[in-house]
C-alpha cells in the first residue's frame, strides 16, 4: 500500500500575502515570481504559526522556486525582506490604557471577523463581521478601525496588533491582499478603500505597537479559535 503523505503547512514571511498556508499550491501563489520570497514548510499548524510569529530564521536562506535563478544571494534577499516586513517596535511593558485588536478567519479565505478590546477593563469596544475575507485583511481593518475610533473620541492611547503583515500594510497605507474582488467581496473591498483613504488623509499620532505574544501570551482581542 502506498504511504499516506502527512499534511504540511507552509509559512510565507515575504510574499504577495504573508501568512500560513495549508497547501503547496496556495504557498506557490504567494511566492512564485515574488522577488525576495521567504517561505518554509512545517509538519504541524502550531509549529508553522509559531514560526510565522517569530519571523524568518536569521540564518535561513530564501528557498528558490525550481527553474528560477536567484539574481542576488539568499542573505541579501532576506535582509531586503526583513527590512520591508520589520514590525513596529513593541513596548517594553504593556500599556494599561490601550486598545488591542485581532481578527479570526475560518479558512483562507473564509468567514472573517475582527474586533477591538480595551485593556483597561477587557471589554469589547467594536466588532465587525463575519464577512468573506482573509485574516490579514481583518487584522489591517481592525487597526484602522481602532485608529479612527480613537481619533473620533479624542483619546490618546496605543493600539496593539500581533500581525506583522497588518502593521506593514498600515505603514504603507495600502492593503496588499490578493483576494479577488467579486460580488461576494465587494462590500469588504469598499471597506478596504475607505480604510486606505483614511490612512492617506489623516496624520494620526496614535502609536501602533506589535503585541509580543511570546512574552505576554495571546493578545486580549484573540478569538480563541487557534487549532
Question: Pairing-aware structural class of the strands and helices?
Answer: alpha/beta
Strand content: 15-25%
Q: Termini, distance in Å? A: 30 Å
Radius of gyration: 18 Å
Which bin fits the share of residues in helices? 25-40%
Question: What's the main sheet like?
Answer: 5 strands, mixed
Mean pLDDT: 83
Please give the count of helices. Answer: 7
Shape annotation: globular
Number of beta-strand segments: 8
Identify low-pLDDT runs.
Answer: 59-73
What's a quick, concise take on this entry?
The protein has 227 residues and is an alpha/beta fold.
Q: What are the defining features of this structure?
A:
alpha/beta, 7 helices
Descriptive account of the structure:
The chain is α/β, with parallel strands linked by helices and 227 residues long. Helices cover 34% and strands 21% of the residues. It contains 7 helices and 8 strands. The chain has helices at 24-31, 45-54, 74-84, 135-153, 164-172, 186-201, 213-216, and strands at residues 9-14, 19-21, 38-42, 99-107, 110-118, 124-133, 159-161, 208-210. Strands 6-5-4-7-8 form a 5-stranded mixed sheet, covered by helices on one side. A hairpin with a 2-residue loop joins strand 4 (99-107) and strand 5. Helix 4 (135-153) crosses helix 5 (164-172) and helix 4 (135-153) packs across helix 6 (186-201). The chain is globular, with a radius of gyration of 18 Å.
